[in-house]
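[Solved] Which block belongs to which protein?

Original post:
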Amino acid sequence: MPHPKLRPTPLVLAAALLASAWAAEPQVVKIGFAAPLTGPQAHYGADMKAGIVLALEDANRQNLRIGGLPVRFELLAEDDQADPKAATGIAQRFVDARVAGVIGHFNSGTSIPASKVYADAGIPQIAMATAPAYTAQGFKTTFRAMTSDTQQGSVMGGFVVKKLGLKKIAVIDDRTAYGQGLADQFERAARAAGGTVVQREYTSDRATDFASILTSIKAKKPDAVFYGGADSQSAPLAVQMKRLGLKAKLISGEMTRTDTFLKLAGEAGDGAIASLAGLPAEQTPGSVALLQRAKARFGAIEFYAPYSYDATMVMVNAMKAAGSTQPARYLPLLAQTQYAGVTSAKIAYDARGDLKNGDITVYKADKGQWKVLETVSGG
């Protein structure tokens, strides 16, 4: 039996435990990510993934201690192929893998069904999804990385009619949650601004032949054609509009405001108008620096990387504030986020998980470049 004087004091024991904690192997914190990484929308997913990878690397370089213990973030990346069924299967795998949070999915059509799986498991999700339905479900776990279609569609509808003077409009959407939702909001705002929708058509997110739709629309002599969908459709749409001699201006959303659209559409893309959430990158130095890092590391990058970088850092910051990587512990802090990111000096959420900052920038394609027309508040 040790002599009483040789027994370690509580202070010595505490010091030993503290030293042991500091020397412990970092706790692995898994972050899930899902987006289309193959197929015609793979460039969107690659963009989003680039921002997340850089954010987690930056976080790991800080040698963070959360709740007094060292942590190391690990990314679990999945290709959901922009397919809702695949997305729900991936969501369940993330739940089974006990991820601490999810940055994703990219598309509204995948984010919405997957969100139910995450909500049931209590796992926070920050998605690139812009469809109003994503946060309208009432789940406490859903948050956005970008402004919603309600904000973008409302801004663009009024802008096209009042600022551009284009009053006779045909509307086409790809029938996805994103494309149809954006088109619905645009149409509503355009009508409210005094515009007339002369024809409403729909296609699919896999279509590339729009001859019959455009021939029908041409007879109505519209001033503008609004397309709700991705650049893999809006680019051939622009080419076929020019081929048919349709003089209407092509209007679309952020999935068209890409370098990929400019490359695919070529000269036919000149004059196209598209919106994008937030201020122009050159007005947010953090975005410019992040895009430069992403391009140097990963090659071709569009513009989603800064948004996914911020989303990841917001989640990490909430864990730090809560002193815990457990979803139930840090979720309330995530909802109360006040974060200075690379895309905005003040990232904050409303009660639904929508971003409070509703700035929308309108761009015009001009000789292979996107040029700023105007930034409008969509708040």
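(Second protein starts here: sequence line, then its structure tokens.)
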Amino acid sequence: MAAPAAAGSGGSPRSPLLDDLMPWSVRPLRTGRPWVTAPDAASLRARWERLVGASGEEREQLFAPTRARTQQTPVAALPGQHGATGRFARETGPCPEPVRILHGPFDEQWLLPDHRLIDVARPELWRVADGHQLFAVEHGPVPRDPGPAVSVTALLPDGHSPAGRPGRVRPLYRRPGGLEPNLSPGLLALLRARHGESVGAESVLAWILAAGRPSPAGCEVPLPADTARWSAGVELGRELLRLQLRGARGGERPRLPGGRRPYVRAAVPPAPASLAYDPEERALTLGSGRISPVPEGAWEFRVSGVRMLELWFERRTAVPGTDGLESVRPRVWPQEWTSELLELITLLALLAELRPAQDALADGPEIGADELRAAGVLPVADAARRPASVLDHQEEGPDGQFALL
């Protein structure tokens, strides 16, 4: 039997797609050279110093030119950043301050915010990234994947997919300052008429986070017809959002109740070569290091079919080449990585505990495609899929010239 068509596809819909509800989306960033991101900021500063201190053929090899970026490529500044715009071949200055980003679904890393080093930086995302913005990251669909279809962050996300299938980044607001929600025209009015005037952009995002589910066509989002189900889903989604923001916006960082919190029982060695899980002891081992208790739900938490704890560990222990800038990295396991791992275990454990409540939201009457069309939600206007014009200032173009916009 064929899968039911999505609400915007013209068939007999079951649920609308996230693409119809948050219509403006951006493809993932493409750095072109992996050494511009790292799990620690100190490595990025050291890589920069090595690069700008080199000359001739060595500098060219370290830079790792691509079709999109060479040391001679003229590039405008990244919006909101103070990086130089002169040709990188002439660069000898200090390292730009690394910025915190979300690398994939739950891995917080660091990036050198220099447009001359990034093949496709998606400036439209940088223009709307501020203290009011939230980003929904839709994960690429994987057959029979039980994991979440979407996650949310206050950091700038690179949109990287664990399984190598491209997803999309969807800002909640189309303009800085939390202005103009990135929602299909008519959606807020329809939901307010159904569920009350308190419905706002963040409550819609909370519902999406709680009720969104993967499908071959993308993330499906059932819109409930009854207010009790809507309210329960929004409350659940706000808790999911609080956890995933990890203390951003003045919130509390994720914590398990006393007695269930993971602790380091044996110190992580300087260079752990393996990661394993003991379900009977509820323990995570990193070489001779040992952390417990670790709930099985945290160990088995997957996105796009990939186990998150394994991926996080692999990104910090994969053996790089000896010649490139990726080889500039910590020689021993930093203490802050252990702290980050403890927080990630806690986050994944809490998210796993909420999964049954998310699954329960799937049952109930939904707002149908006819009502969505009558409210003007569908079909989505082309203008809603394009970024808004947000420029109220000049942006510096290549070699210090102001860009013509």
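Accepted answer:
You had them paired correctly. Confirming on the second one: Confidence is low (pLDDT under 50) at residues 1-13.
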